[in-house]
Amino acid sequence: MCEANAYLRKDGREELFLEMVDKVVPHEEGLMLEDIFGRRKIVKARIAELALVDHKIVLEKE
Amino acid sequence: MCEANAYLRKDGREELFLEMVDKVVPHEEGLMLEDIFGRRKIVKARIAELALVDHKIVLEKE
Q1: How far apart are CA A25 and CA B38, in angstroms?
Q2: Which burial class, exposed, middle or buried, applies to B12 when counting CB atoms under 10 A from its CB (0-12, 13-18, 19+)?
Q3: If we measure between CA atoms, which residue out of B50, B48, B16, B29 comes closest to residue A18?
Q4: Are B44 and B54 in contact (CB under 8 A)?
């Protein structure tokens, strides 16, 4: 499987926000993340960086 | 391997921009994409969407 873990960058630190993320799509309140089980989380943030071989998505608060 | 193909969205269509992308990081001119072989491309765009199980990154021109 080719999912990644999403981290939220805050004050220079990265906190795990959602594991095994499949989709990230724009949402009226920021971004909607969906994991491989279909669980969804919304966050007021943007995608800052990707490191897919390391299974990593870094989000930054808007 | 857990890379994805990056597509650039233009006028509602998606054009393949770079295959087998590992890293996407901010760059002074937009984004720097690096594939799993270390080849790099720079584009004035932002990350719009991800669909990782489909190995897909969608970029949008800024």
Answers
A1: 27
A2: exposed
A3: B50
A4: no
Task: Provide mean pLDDT across the span A31-58.
Answer: 97
Token digits for B38?
């270390």
Q: Which of A28, A54, A47, A16 has the alpha carbon at shortest distance from B51?
A: A47
| ipTM entry | 0.92
Tokens of A4: 């990644």
Kindly identify which residue of chain A lies nearest to residue B4, measuring between CA atoms. A52
pTM of the predicted protein model: 0.93
CA-wise closest residue to B33 among B49, B46, B22, B44: B22
Listed by start position, the domains of chain A span 4-54
Residues in chain A: 62
CB nearest to B48's CB, from A3, A26, A48: A26
Whether residue B22 and residue A47 make contact (CB cut-off 8 A), yes or no, is: no
CA-nearest residue to A30 within chain B is B48
Residues B1-44: tens digit of each pLDDT: 678 999 999 988 999 999 999 999 999 999 999 999 999 999 99
